[in-house]
Amino acid sequence: MDDQEDNQGPMSAPEEEEVEDQMPMMIVPKKKRSLWVIIVVPMIILVIVSFLAARLMPQAAKYEEAVASMNERYPGYTGDISPSGSVAAKFLPQRKIQFEYNLQGLESNCVDCGIHIHEGTTCDDADEVGGHYYSVEVDPWTTEGGAVYNSDVNGEATGHFTLTSGYDTYNENVGHAVVIHSQNGTRLSCGILKAET
């Protein structure tokens, strides 16, 4: 009986210390849970909100593009310069045209030489290529308008420029002639803007 009383009686000092040592361990899970709620849950919510925002946001505006192969000489031109390459016209949502060119066979070191969209829709007849194609008050297809290329010592030119012509959509430009000019303004090459393939 004494044994039973000893088992059920008051705890000895070492047993009390053992229980106290266990007390903090019972609190730790709550702290871990609090830490989890404070740090992990907001991170999960942030990831979900970011994902939904990306899905619901309007997609970046796309542009239409037309490309002109510049491998044909301008009708009637019989000089020594034989340009080749291509010009891409990207019609941006802000009603601007971004011109990108990659050309070879040009004059060496041609500075501020013209590259323009023209009124005509053919490269077969010089009389039908027409002048610069624009509807704004001031002709943008000029050096001042930035519609130029600069070639290197090898007669190569790669670059881009952006402008507003008043005819700034794909449908208003596709089918029109693009003309490359020499340093003195001679029309060297002609190509028709076509749908990008």
UniProtKB/TrEMBL annotation:
- Please verify whether the record's keywords include Membrane: yes
Lineage: superkingdom: Eukaryota
| Chain ranges of the Superoxide dismutase copper/zinc binding domain | 94-184
- Among its keywords, does the record have Translocase? no
Pfam family example for this protein?
A: Sod_Cu
Which InterPro entries is this protein grouped with?
A: SOD-like_Cu/Zn_dom_sf, SOD_Cu_Zn_dom
Its recorded name reads Superoxide dismutase copper/zinc binding domain-containing protein
Organism field:
Stephanodiscus triporus
